[in-house]
Amino acid sequence: MKRIEHFIPGIEGEGVGILARLRWPIPAGVVAAYTAAYTEPGERVLVPYCQGSEEVREILSAGRQVVALNFDPLVAMVVRTELALPPARELDGAVARLGDSPKQGVPLRRFLSELYATSCPACSRPAVADYFIWDRERGEPIVKHLHCRGCAWQGEAATVQEDLERLADLPAREMQYHYVLDRVSPPARGGSLHTRLEYLLEFYSPRNLYALAELTRKIEGLFPEGPLHQALKTLLADCLDRCSSLAPLPGRTPRRRGLRHPRRYVERNVWLAFEEAVTRVKALADARTSGLGDVLEARLAAGSGGSYVGQGLVRDLVRIQSPRSTRLILTSPPPLDSVAWSLSYLWCAWSLGAEAAAPLRPLLLQRTPDPAWYARVMAGSMAALADLLRDDGRLVLVLTDQRPTVIEALVLAADQARLGVASL
Which of 386, 351, 379, 347 is nearest to 363 (CA)? Predict the structure, then answer.
């Protein structure tokens, strides 16, 4: 009998790494344990809705092949970047070239950094803020954090009139705002979808929207394609997450929450956030590669008998895998979360363009999570997956920080797909 198994680890919070707000990856070690228990070396493991590179690494490390797909093009790109990051020298060179590129007569890094210019409260010398904390009701920043290069003072201080006056000197918002809005909007403008996108862009301060728009333009102009383009777009996506007003205040625990404008929010220095993303993704690659680079180069290519990691739908698996041939399918199901869906579309369309984000467009208008709809959609996916399983095959669902309604919907979907529940 084909079986479905549910594993529910006690993990809370948003996770770590690039674009953590949109990813519920399978916890480390779980994939390795199931792969060793239910497959033989050389067999292929399927990972639909793949959300983490570690899932792929554990399967390849066990001597198995892997086909890992995600319907979200941005998540698929992030996973591939984590798996095959360009060499550190090349990535550092690309970031240096990006930072050195001219903008109004000065290097881009200086231009973007000076958008956050302030003065040191200890020595009054010019400085650059790491971030500002805004009060939404007052409509202005009330706290700044900086590290003064002149006197080495570091910490938070109240903003002064000079900081507020600098906001009035910022370039006009309209050009960058409409550049981004045109970029994320589908060809047929107007209607509720357009209104929704306008609302989502309000989660960026005018200063951060301007800086992120300029960063997007420069990346596309200097690196129009190739591995470095993919890596830099991954870093941009991380900035879109961490530089929105939905990001937690410094020192606060990140939480998944609704699309509500917080009373107080952090406005991060975009260029500094970009450099921090470079450091984070390089550290992740250094810590987890463990000699797998050559294996990934050899196996991460579509083709007969090979492995594949990328964008795709569950129904695409029938073109890669023969019916009744798979012993193990592992997945962390997509969340029943309208906030994540809205942000997925916005960040995918901003990073990759509205056409690339087309598979996510129907989710953008799902304002309220609907468990019945979710169960119907997942039943169709599970039925397609069931056709790929051998009679003794297993579909393992790993649920991380999901609500009981999601578990109930998945059990219902499994029943409709004629899968027997082996364990819960």
Answer: 347
Is the Cα dihedral 176, 182, 183, 184 positive or negative? positive
Distance, in Å, from the CA atom of 221 to the CA atom of 226, rounded to the nearest integer, reads 13
Measured from the Cβ of residue 228, the count of other Cβ atoms closer than 10 Å reads 19
Q: What is the DSSP letter of 8?
A: -
19, 347 contact by CB (below 8 A): yes
Q: What is the pLDDT of residues 128-144, one digit of tens each?
A: 999 999 999 999 999 99
pLDDT for 4 equals 61
User: What is d(CA 415, CA 409) in angstroms, rounded to the nearest whole number?
Assistant: 10
* Cα gap 394→3, rounded to integer Å: 5
Q: Is 331 in a helix, a strand, or coil?
A: strand
CA-to-CA separations, 134 to 145, 154, 157, 206, 261, in angstroms, rounded: 12, 19, 13, 12, 12
> To 10 degrees, what angle do helices 73-83 and 338-352 make?
70
Tokens (6 digits) for 392: 């003794």
pTM over 0.85: yes
Helix H or strand E encompassing 90: helix 88-100
Which residue carries 């169960």 as its tokens? Answer: 375
DSSP 17: S
